[in-house]
């Protein structure tokens, strides 16, 4: 009887995890619930390398662990809180990475789409190329 109960519980948990693939528009957590106070200054070159098909291990190498309580087996969404400098001010931006059923990056989102401009260059504007 106990073995049947454990089997039923295991099947239920696996089905719940399998159904955890993020669908629909992104929902960002409250920045105050981040695991560390405030954001981190991300390496822009690392952030530029994020894209579809990366594994969680590759994401960890590029950006580190997610900044919210999402770093568990089977989680399909990682959220980050990044800081950038603009005009002498610090701008906080929330970034979300979604993983597919194979645990590879499927999509990325900015809470404020204008934050994507920080990826152009460190200053947020394209750098002219000298001939």
Describe this entry's structure for a reader.
The protein has 131 residues and is of the alpha+beta class. It has a domain at 39-123: Beta-lactamase Inhibitory Protein, Chain:B, domain 1 (2-Layer Sandwich). The chain contains 3 helices and 4 strands; from the N terminus they run αβααβββ. It has helices at residues 2-18, 44-48, 56-63, and strands at 40-41, 77-86, 89-99, 105-110. Strands 1-2-3-4 form a 4-stranded mixed β-sheet, with no helix packed on it. A hairpin with a 5-residue loop joins strand 3 (89-99) and strand 4 (105-110). The protein is globular, with a radius of gyration of 18 Å. The N and C termini lie far apart (77 Å).
Map the helices and strands.
Elements: H1 2-18, E1 40-41, H2 44-48, H3 56-63, E2 77-86, E3 89-99, E4 105-110
Parallel strand pairs: 1-2
Antiparallel strand pairs: 2-3, 3-4
C-alpha Rg, in Å? 18 Å
CATH class of one domain, anyone?
Alpha Beta
Cα(first) to Cα(last) distance is 77 Å
Form type: globular
By DSSP (H or I, 4+ residues per run), the number of helices equals: 3
Low-pLDDT ranges: 5-20, 123-129
The percent range for strand residues is 15-25%
E-strand count: 4
Q: Provide the spatial order of strands within the biggest beta sheet.
A: 1-2-3-4
Broad structural category: alpha+beta
Succession of helices and strands: HEHHEEE
GO cellular component, one term: outer membrane
InterPro entries: BamE-like, BamE_dom
Keywords: Lipoprotein, Membrane, Signal
Protein name: Outer membrane protein assembly factor BamE, lipoprotein component of the BamABCDE complex
